Each structure stands twice: as C-alpha cells, then as structure tokens.
Amino acid sequence: EYKTGSEFHMDFMVNQFLIMFLILPLAIPMTISTYGIIGEKQERSLEPLLATPIEVWELLLGKSLGAALPGVAVTWFAYLVVALESILFVRDPAMTGAILSPTWLLAMGILAPLFTLLSVGLGVIVSSRMSDPRAAQQVGLIVILPVMAVVVGTATGAITLGPAMVLVSALIVAAADVGVLYLAVKLFGRETILTRWK
C-alpha cells in the first residue's frame, strides 16, 4: 500500500509515542513488585505468610498477578483514551490509522503484558535479595534501559517498528519472561528472608 510523505511522517511520530506506552507496563509493576516483599517484611506482615505451607511459586504467582494487573490495566486504559481522542477530537485519518494499526494493536495486546511479566519477575528477584524498597526500585528500573535503546534506535532510523518487529520482540520477551520467573522461584529464599532480615 502506497503511503504519502505525511503518512510516513505520522507513522514515525506515532511509533515514537508507542515506545513511551511500552514503558508504562515496565515502570508501574516494577514499583509494586519491589515493594511487595520488602514492604511487607518491614511492616512485619510477610513472616506469617512465609510460615504457612504455601509453595514459593504460589506466593510469587499471587504477588506477580497483584503487581501485573494494574500495570496492564493502566496501559490499556491509556491506549483506549488516546485512540478515542484521535477518533473523536483529532479526526486525522493518518493519525487514527497509525494508532489503530496492527503494530499498535499487537504491541498493546501482546507485548505490553509480556513486558509486565518481565518487570514483575525482575522486581521479585530484586526485592527478595535486598532490604531497602527505594534501592530495589532503582536497581529494578534498569529493565527499562533496553526499551530506551529501542527509542534511540527508532529515532535514528536504525529500527523500524512494524507488526513483524513487534512479534519478534514478543517472542524474545516471552522467552525472557520464562527464564526470569523460573529464576525468581529458584532465588527466593524463604528461610533466608525469615532469618536474615531484621
């Protein structure tokens, strides 16, 4: 399909905005998940939970869902608001077409939730190994750096966002999710947390 110069320009600008949307499901769950363990430890509400016969994977699954759902919900809500504003108020066919394109729909529907799981998994790992919530959040936010590299890549033209690129990225992030969540279960030391943190 032939695109005019203005349509190409609009695609480029809107795709830059897409990268900002993909930071939301990274930053919000990271903040929640890093506090989930450290904060409960400091408030003395984690010890009774760890003393129960609950399995580690069950505990981490519950905490992961509690941190992931708000991140995905906020991202989807923000996308819905932008899409509706484009349709109802901006009324620019090129902008609306870019926001409702397969690239955006795949990124919001697949890549954003996968990024959320990655963020949560890393947050759990960091928070289970550290004792200060702020330090854990600062370390955990390193996960955003690869996304910022994509921002630079798209801004310089080195990376072109499209459905194929989003799907390849989704496969890579999904593989990283599996590895990180498996590692989170393995590194979570129930006895260490109970005995070491004072």
What does this structure look like?
The chain is an all-alpha fold and 198 residues long. It has helices at residues 5-42, 46-50, 56-90, 93-99, 102-129, 133-140, 145-156, 163-187, 190-196. Helix 3 packs antiparallel against helix 5. The termini are far apart.
In brief:
The chain has 198 residues and is mainly alpha-helical. It has 9 helices and no strands.
Describe the structure using short key phrases:
198 residues, mainly alpha, 9 helices, elongated
Mean pLDDT: 76
For the record, give the distance between the C-alpha atoms at the N and C termini, rounded to a whole number: 63 Å
User: Unreliable segments (pLDDT under 50, ≥5 consecutive)?
Assistant: none
- Radius of gyration equals 19 Å
Number of helices: 9
Total strands: 0
Give the helix/strand layout.
Layout: H1 5-42, H2 46-50, H3 56-90, H4 93-99, H5 102-129, H6 133-140, H7 145-156, H8 163-187, H9 190-196
